[in-house]
Design goal:
- The complex is a heterodimer of chains A (about 280) and B (about 325).
- Chain A is built from eleven helices and two strands; from the N terminus they run ααααββααααααα.
- Chain A has about 280 residues and is mostly helical.
- Chain A has one domain.
- In chain A, β1 and β2 form a beta hairpin.
- Chain A starts with a helix and ends in a 12-residue tail after the last helix.
- Chain B is an all-alpha fold and about 325 residues long.
- Chain B has a single domain, classed as Orthogonal Bundle (ABC transporter involved in vitamin B12 uptake, BtuC), CATH 1.10.3470.
- Chain B contains 16 helices and two strands.
- In chain B, α1 packs antiparallel against α7.
- Chain B is globular.
- Classes of the chains: A mainly alpha (about 280), B mainly alpha (about 325).
- At the A-B interface, α4, α9 and α11 of A face α5, α12 and α14 of B.
């Protein structure tokens, strides 16, 4: 029984990692706590849902489209709105993104209503050593994991990725090296939105989604980010897996209603004991 | 403490406003009393937040956590046989004790980590209230004993109680602004390391401000709980309120005496207007208001240097052609 929960925890943890990578990147590079993140996840999920159910687009086309759409939206929001307040005190950037979150969430509720919707997919399940694993969950986890690794690769080996890391380490020095800071901010925010959209697509395969869930997703991103440390991709992966496991095990030992609280309590503990996250210091990837 | 002419003036103005509010209680109808009570409550929360967020410069998002603790402490105390006044005291005490216990580890954090840690307090509080069925009644909520008396009397009673608490918060702010303690808080906002280097016990100041803020929020929560006579976790530990309060103070001016009140009044008026006219779009419009405040008056009504802003607005049309000429030349 416990083994089943551990497997479920790891599978959910992979999607959690994808959910948190974008949030963590934006926080680490832009120094902005992006309250919009939860709504971006919902937006990705709904884009995918509507493309598949209303327009009949196949899933493997709908998902990249949703990601691209989110990237464009994120890029535009950063370029047009958030870039103007970057570098200001936390309270300013945080409340600004919260204001945007209220607007986007209201729009989502208005367009799609609060009814939970899900992509009804049934690809069956496989059994390994007596553990039952639905294929959809493996698929969702794989997509999330591949994208997360891709972001990691992008940050390490591409020119843009190096520029993003440079801005994260020291934005003044990066500006002197000829990096266009605002451009990098917008790109980073776009990538963050893209990852949120991908996580939303993966979530839509597994759970019914409603716009009311944006706060829940945001909370999870917070926890993972604190567990793993800011702006680090490996940190987000570790944090995601830890949260998935803790929630799984917590719901067996304490009862399912405690699953969310266990995560938050773990986060408060970590925040107090290790103020720079479990994975340690930020810096060179 | 130094009490000069300007503080006497401020005290006089504030007292006049509150006295007028109290006198109005005679003529207001029940709906107006309800709006007045919630306005007074928001003012209390704003002033309470202002100690930590405004004067001390720590981005606290824990307002709802203490509000909820106060509401639940009141309910639990009354259900165990305490009288109303004792239950209110218990609530204030609970807020203070928990603020001290959580504040000691939490106030070592800075910036984003403090903000996130304090918002997590709200989440944890709500989850505990949701799941500890034996004490808090779980997600179903708790009923508080109703107050005896006619509806008119009861609503006036709570209006005046909340107004009194608001006046207390106002007077405390005015007092602290002029003491060594208030000076210390402002030093922490400007440069915490320097403040500690000149021999200030920075940590004790921070915890004291956090506790003060916690007590006031908890008292407001407890009066609120008695008024509505029913509390549930997602109402007591409301995540929206915890973010709205800093926005209100920002609207009025952070770290100022009258800023929290002006911001609260402004926000409530806007909110009532939006609620009444755009019921489906109210949260979106509130979001737009928040964005507009941050774009145009980030320092608030009291913090903005209006003369500079206005002169800049006036001058800008003249500047444009000269700049163009410069480039061409």
């Amino acid at each position: 029984m416990l083994a089943q929960y551990v497997v479920n925890g790891v599978l959910t943890g992979g999607i959690y990692a994808c959910l948190a990578v974008g949030f963590s990147l934006v926080w680490g590079v832009l120094n902005v706590v992006n309250m919009l993140h939860g709504s971006m996840v919902v937006l990705g999920a709904y884009f995918c849902l509507y493309a598949v159910q209303q327009l009949g687009t196949p899933l493997y086309v709908a998902m990249p489209l949703a990601c691209l759409f989110l990237f464009a939206a994120g890029y535009a929001v950063q370029k047009g709105v958030i870039n103007r307040v970057i570098g200001q005190p936390i309270l300013i950037t945080l409340t600004l993104t919260f204001g945007l979150e209220l607007i986007v969430n209201n729009l989502l509720l208005h367009l799609f209503s609060a009814t939970p919707r899900s992509l009804v997919t049934n690809f069956g399940a496989i059994e390994v050593f007596g553990l039952r694993i639905p294929v959809v969950r493996i698929g969702g986890m794989l997509v999330a994991a591949i994208l997360t690794v891709l972001v990691y690769w992008l940050l390490r080996h591409s020119k843009i990725g190096r520029a993003i890391i440079a801005v994260r380490m020291d934005r003044h020095a990066a500006a002197l090296m000829g990096i266009r800071i605002k451009q990098i901010y917008a790109l980073t925010f776009g990538i963050g939105a893209l990852m949120a959209g991908a996580a939303g697509c993966a979530m839509a395969l597994i759970y019914p989604i409603t716009p009311m869930m944006s706060g829940l997703f945001l909370g999870k991103a917070f926890i993972i980010c604190v567990l793993g440390g800011l702006g680090s991709v490996p940190g987000a992966i570790i944090g995601g897996l830890v949260l998935g496991l803790v929630e799984g095990v917590g719901s067996v030992t304490l009862g399912p209603q405690w699953a969310t609280s266990v995560g938050f309590m773990l986060m408060m503990l970590v925040i107090i004991v290790f103020p720079s996250g479990l994975a340690g210091k930020r810096g060179y990837e | 403490m130094n009490f000069d002419l300007s503080s006497a003036m401020k005290l006089a103005i504030g007292s006049a406003v509150f006295a007028a509010g109290a006198l109005l209680a005679v003529t207001l109808d029940n709906y107006q009393l309800q709006v007045g009570t919630s306005l007074a409550m928001l003012c209390v929360l704003c002033w309470a937040w202002n100690f930590v967020g405004g004067y001390m410069g720590y981005p606290s998002l824990a307002t709802s956590a203490f509000f909820g603790i106060g509401a639940y402490a009141n309910a639990v105390a009354q259900l165990h046989g305490a009288s109303l006044s004792v239950a209110w005291m218990v609530a204030g005490l609970a807020g203070g004790v928990i603020a001290a216990l959580v504040g000691v580890p939490m106030l070592r954090l800075k910036g984003h980590y403090f903000a996130v840690g304090s918002i997590a307090m709200v989440e944890v509080g709500r989850e505990i209230a949701n799941n500890w069925d034996g004490l808090t009644g779980g997600a179903v909520g708790l009923n508080l004993p109703l107050m005896a008396g006619s509806p008119d009397y009861v609503s006036r009673f709570f209006y005046l109680a909340m107004l009194a608490l608001a006046f207390l918060s106002f007077a405390l702010t005015l007092f602290i602004e002029r003491t060594r303690f208030g000076f210390g808080l402002r030093c922490i906002r400007q440069n915490e390391d320097a403040a500690s280097m000149v021999g200030m016990d920075v940590f004790r100041y921070k915890v004291a401000a956090f506790v003060l803020s916690g007590v006031l929020c908890a008292m407001a929560g407890s009066i609120y709980a008695s008024m509505v006579a029913f509390i549930e976790p997602k109402d007591a530990f409301n995540i929206i309120t915890t973010i709205e309060i800093p926005v209100m103070v920002m609207l009025g001016g952070m770290g100022t005496l009258f800023g929290p009140m002006i911001g609260g009044v402004f926000y409530v008026v806007l909110k009532e207007f939006v609620w009444a006219n755009f019921i489906n779009w109210h949260s979106g419009i509130l979001g737009a208001i928040i964005v507009a405040v941050i774009y145009f008056i980030p320092a608030g009504v009291f913090g903005t240097k209006w003369s500079i802003l206005i002169s800049r607005l006036r001058r800008s049309p003249e500047r444009k052609p000269s700049k163009l000429a410069e480039i061409k030349g």
